[in-house]
Specification:
Length: 158
């Protein structure tokens, strides 16, 4: 059974997951070119929201990089070098596909919304919407320190 750190701030993690999900949804919506939309309408607004949300994620403590991947598996926006972006984009697609298959096999009416992996050095968060996805890579040392500080400051205010 996995151990849950007493310093884990679930509210903060859920907020990050929601931002990831919103970003994928906005990106998906902005790239679905509909003929009846004017060039400055929904598509432009959605792309502006994508940029804003992407930049907000990059400012979070411990974030080493973020990659926005389109339906073809290409990194269309990234804060990482091209080699790392290509590796993450290419390797995460099959991982998400396998995780989706597992979820459907275990519970056919359920679906994968987020994938979270933690290694000794980094934590990888993936939000997927159909074939679009956002990958967020965080430094576990900085992340753990931020969680400890957040936990201790909330205990002091009680």
């Amino acid at each position: 059974m996995p151990q849950i750190s007493p310093h884990t701030n679930f509210t903060e993690t859920n907020k990050i997951f929601q931002w990831l999900k919103d970003l994928v949804f906005l990106f998906k919506r902005s790239t679905n070119s509909e003929k009846h939309l004017a060039p400055t309408s929904l598509t432009t607004i959605a792309m502006s929201d994508v940029e804003t949300t992407f930049d907000r994620l990059l400012k979070l403590p411990g974030v080493m990089g973020a990659i926005l991947v389109n339906g073809e598996g290409e990194a269309v926006r990234t804060s990482m070098d091209s080699t790392s972006s290509s590796i993450f984009a290419g390797k995460m697609r099959p991982m998400v596909k396998m995780a989706r298959a597992l979820v459907h096999e275990v519970e056919p009416t359920d679906e994968l919304t987020y994938l979270r992996m933690r290694t000794l050095k980094s934590e990888i968060l993936v939000a997927a919407e159909n074939e679009h996805m956002i990958i967020l890579v965080q430094d576990t040392n900085i992340l753990d320190e931020a969680r400890r500080n957040s936990s201790s400051s909330s205990k002091k205010s009680e």
